[in-house]
Amino acid sequence: MGNHLFYFVIRVLLWLPIMFLLWYYLQTPINAVVALMVEQLTLFFSPDIFTAIKSTGRQLEIVTQLIINLEQSEQQGYLVFMINPMIYGFGLPFFIAIILAIPEAIDINLPHIALSVMIILLSQLWGIIFDIYKSVIFVFHSNIGDVLILNTFQTSLFAYAYQMGSLIFPVVIPVVLWLWVGKEFWQQWSAIKL
Amino acid sequence: MIRFFLLFIGIQTSLFFIEMLLPVQKAIIIPFTESLATISGYLIQLFDQQIIVNGIILRSLDNGFAVSIQSGCNGVEAVIILISGILAFPASIRYKAIGVIAGTCAIQAINLLRIISLYYLGQWNTTAFEWAHLYLWQVLVMLDALIVFLIWIYKIPKPTLVVEQNG
User: Which of B139, B142, B153, B156 would best serve as a mutation to test chain A binding (most A beta carbons within 10 A)?
Assistant: First the structure.
């Protein structure tokens, strides 16, 4: 069994760079889809704040209706800022690499993999959307004032949701999903069967 | 299996929530992160004296480049997921304790490697640093947690079969 674990690790380390390279070069079409979904969600929840979410290749451009006063100038403009969606989406190549590292002899449920990929994409959307709201509520607060009227609890909830989306979901969700999808593989190593 | 996953997710969620509380950050996480910086600085000084450590910041005296160890770079998330997996898995308390202690050490050893490598990578190439920092090392540390968990369940002693004799 020790050999099986060793070969599994080797396969993961071989698949990781391949999956990451593929993911990197497919970022433009992936981001186009992500931008569309983020736009629909932000316009649904806050149509008076956001105007459009555009994909600029590997970044998202967030166009708002919020007036921002430029420092040391009487000029005003609409707040537009950039988000890097990749920092919320790298769980996808990671998940696919650790799935592909499972030997072919093990039966893997393809619908489970498809569902897992959807969950990872949803977690990416979560991270992006709360990053956008974090920017509007906290980062640009001194320039645009209070955009949303939130009490202390709601503010803490936004901060918590952002931290979940940025620190935890991208790395934790792929591992949890792999333990679920690959249970026939890793359970064989344990003397205790679940 | 369902029981394992319910426990796994429940323990994780609780530990992540506790970890994010401000009093826990002040009392445990920040001091822990500072100790990581201190240890990283000490290890670097074994072969490179041109470094200074201040709180969570490691700075090069050669070129002023600095790295700051923030949340997400202190390995706490990987440790939490490992602890959750171990606690959710049916095994003796003694064996779980061994797994938690040894696993935490293994993850933090990889994390020290991450900090030191990023410190030098950032001085060499910004693009490489960003890739390693934002994506690669995040994955490798979590992969380490997964491998530690797999080794732990592989090493779990087989349950002892007790045979009762009648008459």
Answer: B139
Could you write out the three-class secondary structure of B58-117?
Answer: EEECCCCCEEECCCCCCCHHHHHHHHHHHHHCCCCHHHHHHHHHHHHHHHHHHHHHHHHH
The per-residue pLDDT string of chain A (194 residues; one tens digit each, 9 = 90 and over) reads 567 888 999 999 999 999 999 999 999 999 999 999 999 999 999 998 899 999 998 899 999 998 887 666 677 788 899 999 999 999 999 999 999 999 876 777 889 999 999 999 999 999 999 999 999 888 887 777 776 777 888 888 888 899 889 988 998 899 999 999 988 888 887 777 77
Answer whether A12 sits within 8 Å of B154, measured CB to CB: no
| Three-state secondary-structure class, residue A40 | helix
Enumerate the residues of chain B whose CB falls inside 8 A of the CB of residue A112.
none
pTM for this structure? 0.88
Q: Is the ipTM of this complex over 0.95?
A: no
Contacts of A166 in chain B (CB under 8 A): 72
